[in-house]
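in:
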């Protein structure tokens, strides 16, 4: 594997007690997570869990006709592949990298062994799963009841919380696929936010110019999700 894992690179790993970290660290493999990489496909058997370092992974529900919509995002606050330690070998969700970076991966057998044998790991992963479920539920509510520009603000804020800078490499087409809407709708919403001076969009890159303005513009869904992560995982998102 050739590298010494950095425990602080992922907040979930950073929350592990010393004894558990010493057991898990030698089993972690650092991997590149390029844009568009599919970590697991809907219905496919999961072989690893992934702990993003500076990448962001979208969890998508894919319909039979090929349509999809994002139900959650995972960054350096969490782990991709919760089905493995929740008793399932497969999941109906697709996990795809939406912002390139690196991550650590851990074999399925290793994460299941830690989950089953260590109370500290079990409780930490269960709290994270509860926070992730809140994000999924709130995303469904947001997509049903709030305007597209509010949804875009929520999505941008959740992504920013998982990045170190204020810029996202993201095309409008990809955002439309994530939100499950038409590209024209994303274009209109992005232009609206740009006219308000909140973002700058050019050549597939979105730069957030006014984070406070985004927080004021978005619906309550962003705060609900962030507060739940902070409550259940106090060392997680800090913005």
């Amino acid at each position: 594997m050739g590298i010494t894992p950095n425990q602080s690179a992922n907040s979930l790993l950073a929350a592990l007690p010393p004894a558990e970290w010493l057991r898990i660290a030698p089993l972690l493999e650092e991997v590149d997570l390029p844009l568009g990489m599919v970590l697991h496909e809907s219905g496919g058997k999961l072989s690893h869990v992934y702990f993003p370092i500076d990448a962001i992974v979208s969890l998508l529900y894919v319909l039979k006709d090929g349509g999809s919509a994002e139900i959650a995002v995972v960054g350096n606050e969490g782990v991709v592949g919760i089905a493995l330690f929740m008793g399932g070998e497969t999941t109906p969700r697709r996990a795809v990298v939406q912002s390139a970076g690196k991550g650590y991966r851990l074999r399925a057998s290793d994460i299941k062994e830690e989950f089953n044998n260590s109370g500290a790991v079990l409780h930490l992963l269960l709290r994270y799963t509860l926070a992730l479920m809140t994000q999924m539920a709130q995303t469904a509510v947001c997509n049903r009841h709030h305007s597209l520009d509010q949804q875009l603000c929520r999505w941008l804020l959740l992504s920013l919380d998982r990045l170190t800078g204020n810029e996202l490499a993201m095309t409008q087409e990809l955002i439309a696929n994530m939100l499950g809407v038409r590209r024209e709708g994303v274009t209109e919403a992005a232009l609206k936010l740009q006219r308000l001076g909140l973002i700058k969009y050019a050549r597939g890159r979105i730069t957030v110019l006014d984070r406070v303005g985004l927080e004021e513009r978005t619906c309550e869904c962003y705060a609900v999700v962030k507060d739940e992560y902070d409550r259940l995982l106090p060392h997680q998102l800090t913005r």
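note: The first strand starts at residue 29 and ends at 33.
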